[in-house]
Amino acid sequence: MRQSAARRHTPVLAAAALLPLLLFGATACQSAPGEAALAPAAAPAVPVDDGAPGGEAPVRSAAKAAHVGDSVRVDGAQVGQHLQAVLVAYVDPAISVEKNYAPPAGKRWVAARMSFVNVGGASYGALGRVWAHDGAGRRHPVVPTGELTTGKPLVFDSLEVGERAEGWVVFEIPENARIVRLQYEDANMQTNSGGGFWEV
Q: Model pTM?
């Protein structure tokens, strides 16, 4: 009788022993998907534009275009030559203080007030060129007009360290042309690498 009783209790004990293992296994099976969902996915590779194609200069996509009021740094050919160039103001059309002095028929004047400060450690030579670019891709040089109703023209032969020169430069353009940007091209070096441009 005792042997049969033991045999009857053996399945019950085995089931009782297996119950925690079954519950733990069920819990583990349920938590696995949750853990997989919380695991961070591999971050996608971010392409870096290093300007390699064509051997062109790198394009800095994060750089903002300069506008009226913004300054750009211009470096001269010699060590220590640095200018801070600012497009202070822009007017369209520009008008001379002389009532009888005006552009020819079919043309108009636009003008930019420019400021240059020698922020380097050496004197700076003559002013370079300033150009106005229109929407058709044409480049217009500065023309002499004398004093405008907005102020005097920009003139300087050289700037010592810390000195500033400021004034107006004038461009004569066709009546139907629209100026989209201005460019400063330094006299002591090749064309600036994009640093001397302002959108207007």
A: 0.65
Distance CA 91, CA 9 (A): 103
92 burial (CB, 10 Å; 0-12 / 13-18 / 19+) is middle
Structure tokens at 50: 């290093």
- pLDDT tens for residues 15-65? 444 334 333 343 333 433 333 322 223 332 222 223 333 333 332 333 467
Domain boundaries, the chain: 1-43, 65-199
Per CATH, the number for 65-199 is: 2.60.40.1240
Token pair of 87 as six digits:
């497009």
Q: Where do we find the tokens 């297996």?
A: 18
Q: Which of 53, 47, 63 is nearest to 193 (CA)?
A: 63
